[in-house]
Amino acid sequence: VTGGRIQEMSALLGIGRTTLWRKMKQHGIDAGQFKRRV
């Protein structure tokens, strides 16, 4: 949906970017896996 853009993801979720990064790290999620490949 957001192409891996953390700021846009956090806005959709209604949380801060830092909170999103922390939660992704806690759950072992790599933001790079969501980036669009051209």
UniProtKB/TrEMBL annotation:
Domain annotation DNA binding HTH: ranges: 2-26
The species this protein was found in: Escherichia coli
GO molecular function: sequence-specific DNA binding
Source taxon at top rank: Bacteria
InterPro entries: Homeodomain-like_sf, HTH_Fis
Pfam family, one: HTH_8
Protein name: DNA binding HTH domain-containing protein
